TrEMBL record:
Basic and acidic residues bias: start-end ranges: 1-12
Magnesium listed as a keyword: no
TM helices/strands, residue ranges: 31-52
CDD domains the UniProt entry points to: S26_SPase_I
GO CC entries: membrane
Source lineage: Archaea, Methanobacteriati, Methanobacteriota, Stenosarchaea group, Halobacteria
Keyword Transcription: no
Positions of the UniProt region annotated as Disordered: 1-23
Highest taxon of source: Archaea
Subcellular location: Membrane
Protein name as catalogued: S26 family signal peptidase
Keywords: Membrane, Transmembrane, Transmembrane helix
């Protein structure tokens, strides 16, 4: 009786340790498959956008309510599909030109650009709207600026550090900010040269970017700053 019991238990023990058991391998295969799927999607987006990485997370609120903190934004190389009436060979349509053609992005006229402030590629990029283009030496306060986007002590060309313009480029503005970025030491950046532009924002996925912001530098998705300007 006991011998038969041993015979029954023997095969079961051999089966549990059989070399054919693939449970551990299946987990590893699933894990590697997920990684390759994510990489594949990333490479596909890169092929479409021409920018790496093609997605950025928004970490501050100055583009609200059109782009919110925690949104994940798809970025396109600005020359790939330029909008109508883009400036020269920049591929960017600023607000004043977009108003004439009816072109809009994120609920308002003009392209939203991601750029390196003052050309500093080590700094957190800024995502703001391109308002107008200025030529080198242009008195852009007189020709294009609106006083409502300048503090009272900056309402002359002499009071603006970058007026006349020290080089050609874009004057930019956060949708939720009271003033242009180009205010000098109290602003965000100098006049944005075309080579400082990383790309244009194309669409957003709400909330998803909070996952990147939560894991910090571990994430392969970088964050960009919708920089706020405090006006006293």
């Amino acid at each position: 009786m006991s011998d038969r019991s041993e015979e029954r238990r023997g095969p079961r023990s051999e089966s549990s340790s059989s070399p054919g058991d693939t449970r551990g391998g299946s987990f590893l295969d699933d894990f590697l498959g997920s990684i390759f799927a994510v990489l594949g999607i990333g490479l596909l987006l890169f092929a479409i956008s021409g920018v790496w990485p093609p997605m950025v997370a928004i970490e501050s609120p100055s583009m609200e309510p059109n782009i919110d903190t925690g949104d994940l934004v798809f970025v396109m190389e600005e020359h790939r599909f330029p909008g109508p009436r883009s400036v020269r060979d920049t591929g960017v349509v600023p607000v004043y030109r977009a108003q004439k053609s009816g072109y809009a992005k994120f609920n308002l006229p003009g392209d939203v650009i991601i750029y390196a402030p003052d050309g500093d590629t080590e700094a957190t990029p800024v995502i703001h709207r391109a308002v107008f283009w200025v030529n080198e030496s242009e008195n852009w306060y007189q020709t294009k600026a609106q006083n409502k986007f300048l503090p009272e002590d900056k309402r002359s060309c002499e009071a603006l550090e970058y007026c006349p313009a020290n080089h050609s480029g874009f004057v930019t503005l956060g949708d939720n900010n009271p003033t242009y970025d180009q205010l000098g030491s109290s602003g965000v950046s100098g006049i944005v040269k075309p080579e400082w532009v990383i790309g244009t924002a194309e669409f957003r996925m709400p909330i998803i970017g909070r996952l990147r912001l939560g894991v910090g530098s571990v994430s392969p998705v970088p964050s960009v700053e919708a920089a706020e300007i405090a006006v006293s």
